[in-house]
Amino acid sequence: MSIDTDIILQETQSLQRILSDQNFLQSSKKQIEDIYDRLITTLIDHNHLYYIDNTPLITDTEYDWLFDGLKKIENHYPDIIRDDSPSQTIIGQYDIQTNFEKSDHTTPILSLQNTYNSEEIIDWYESITNMLNKKISEIGNEEEKNNLIYKTQNLSFLIQPKYDGLAIVLTYNKGKLMKAVTRGDGYTGDDVTENVKTIKNLSKIVTDKNTVIVRGEIMMPKSVRKSLNIIRQDNGEEPFSNTRNAAAGSLKLLDTNEVAKRWLVCYIYDVVQWDSKILQEFSQFQWPQQWDTCTIDDIISLINTTSTKEDLLKADIDFDGLVIKIADPEIRALLWSTNHHPRRAIAYKFPAQQIATQIESIERQVWRTGILTPVANLTPTELSGVTISRVSLHNRDFITQKDIQLHDRVRLQRSGEVIPYIVGVITNRRSNTQRKIDADTIVCPA
Ligand code: IVH
Predict the structure, then answer these.
(1) Mean pLDDT in residue range 367-381
(2) Which residue from 312, 323, 331 has its CB within 8 A of the most atoms of ligand 1, so it is best to mutate?
(3) Buried b vs exposed e over 57-83: b needs ≥16 C-beta within 10 Å?
(4) Which atom of ligand 1 is nearest to the CA of 161?
(5) pLDDT tens figures, 376-399
(6) Which residues lie with the beta carbon below 6 Å from any ligand 1 atom?
(7) pLDDT at residue 47, as a whole number
(8) In which band, very low, low, confident or very high, does the pLDDT at 233 lie, cut at 50, 70 and 90?
(9) Quick one: pLDDT at residue 403?
(10) How far is Cα 38 from Cα 165, in angstroms, rounded to an integer?
(11) pLDDT recorded at residue 419
(12) pLDDT at 181 over 60
């Protein structure tokens, strides 16, 4: 498919003029049909330029505006909707792949050391300042030494949300997205470039023409998982238990046309090769609060403020903590990495929430596929802002292993968007009302 960009731009501008007339829907149906056909052709051309050629001609807002015009026509005249309309499907622009090629990372993609409380963050802070002081003492040049001593005594940090998705490494060359590789074992991952190109919020071009390698996370928005799960359950398919699994499963689909329908998003948070200024070219999650640089004391007060976590949990994407990074490039370079973790950054994981409630009854849930799963009905209770009234007991082994009985008080846990699960039974709250779970205790909904 070759596209004459001058013609498509002229046509886009002409359509923009038509759509900007508020009364355009009052034209004759014949005229509307003509506009509708032109809009479809133009949107398909823009899809091709965006997804396949990586050379979008218009901004996302301009694209959305044309798309909006198309939807207005379809709402007004549902009888003229064409199957190949971009509103109905992102049409077959992509080949079906048979497998994913393996690709080596140029730099090992290390994971971060996790911390769970302020003491562990302070331990990390002390270990890096000790290491910095030791390295600085070996420097001969007095001016350089004094500058680094000052920086170490006034260390400042960047704070980012910790995205709970699938890590991805993107390579741009001559300004274009050339390669997208999953983290894999940190040394080699799967080349999922074609699938990543379908992600709409990800910039496929950057202004810098050097080889730029960045690291980010691919996520499925919570709202998308919810809608997909309704369809999946109707089709008798297993629902996605959390957005991370949903994103991972979607990214590994071999039919790229199907990936495009999963509405994945990608946020870039770190530079593997080149200059940290490049990050400004990517859309990043906009947190209600903005912290440019923080001191260690700011960080400790931030993690002890309940609204920090609450604000992040309200977003349509899943976060499981914060990432604390040293801001200064010179200090970062001095620290280097351990074999497993970079020292210049650390993850702080939000504690998972737990509550206790009681099992009121147990029933079998019948899936469309015929599979029967025991499910406990609970005294409804709130956990991480959601009312929980049912929880899966999975299978007989799970029940035996956890020694779960009817009328037991149980502890439930939920972290992020993960489906709540039973962590254990509070056995010291047992009275004589509990009953072992067997065929008699399970109520059949039918
Ligand atoms: S920075 C040198 N920043 O969390 C630092 N990682 O082990 C490299 N993650 O698998 C990573 N949000 O993929 C960084 N804002 C963020 C992040 C982030 C999520 C992931 C990362 C890694 C895991 C931590």
Answers:
(1) 80
(2) 323
(3) bbeeeebeebbebbeebbeeeeeeeee
(4) 15
(5) 999 988 776 667 889 989 888 889
(6) 111-112, 160, 162-163, 167, 215, 217, 269-270, 323, 342, 345, 347
(7) 75
(8) confident
(9) 92
(10) 38
(11) 72
(12) yes
- Report the pLDDT averaged over residues 203-222: 94
User: What is the distance, to the nearest Å, from the Cα of residue 263 to the centroid of all Cα atoms in its chain?
Assistant: 11
71 is catalytic: no
Per-residue pLDDT at 169: 98
Q: Could you give the C-alpha distances from 44 to 11, 58, 89, 192, 265, in angstroms and in order?
A: 13, 13, 11, 23, 21
User: What letters, b where the CB count within 10 A reaches 16 and e where it falls short, cover 202-235?
Assistant: bbbebeeeeebbbbbbbbbbbebbeebbeeeeee
Secondary structure tally for the chain: helices H, strands E: 13, 16
Q: In terms of Cα–Cα distance, which of 333, 211, 312, 334 is closest to 267?
A: 312
Q: Per the residue annotation, which of 151, 162, 197, 204 is the catalytic one?
A: 162
Left (φ > 0), alpha (ψ -120 to 50) or beta: where does 386 sit? beta
Percentage of the residues of the chain whose pLDDT score is greater than 70: 90
Q: Are 415 and 243 in contact (CB under 8 A)?
A: no
Token pair 């499907």 in the structure block, residue:
89
- Ligand 1 atom nearest to CA at 113: 7
